[in-house]
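Subgroup meeting minutes
Present: P.N., E.W., G.H.
Scribe: E.W.

1. P.N. recapped why we're keeping a running log of single-chain structure predictions: easier to compare across weeks, and new members can see raw inputs and outputs side by side.
2. G.H. added today's entry (160 aa).
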Amino acid sequence: MNRETENTIEGAKQAANRAAERAAESARATTRAAQRQARTIAGDLKAAGRQAIWGGQQRVAETVGQCEVAMRDVAGLLRRTAFGAAAGQVERVAALAGDTRHYLAETPSHEIWRDAEDCVRRHPAASFAAFLLAGMAVGRFLKSSTPGLNHGAARPSGSA
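Output recorded in log:
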């Protein structure tokens, strides 16, 4: 190979190396920009999720507060009837509802989640029973609120 050909090959190699370096740097810069954008989007989604959870948590606290008021009203009515002895029990349940409302309204959701995990670890059998009963209640509610189902209807008679 002559000197001129070697110089041309060497120049092409150097140009290719420089182009590869520029492409690699461009790829790194694009990757960094994509990572920054992904972090920004993830942060926005996390904030939106926290806001949605907090809003739902506040709605639950409000509902529990409404239940507390209703229970206190029932206790007042019971005091004026022959069932006055039950009023104290209803008042205690209303007080628990008030405590629950306050806890939900004031406690960050991550702490509530942690507290729930701790409770399940300490009382697994009671937690299982509570989840079972809650599931059954939700199932009955969904069944009763579904239109078009024949609740309690007699099965058709006839030969099969």
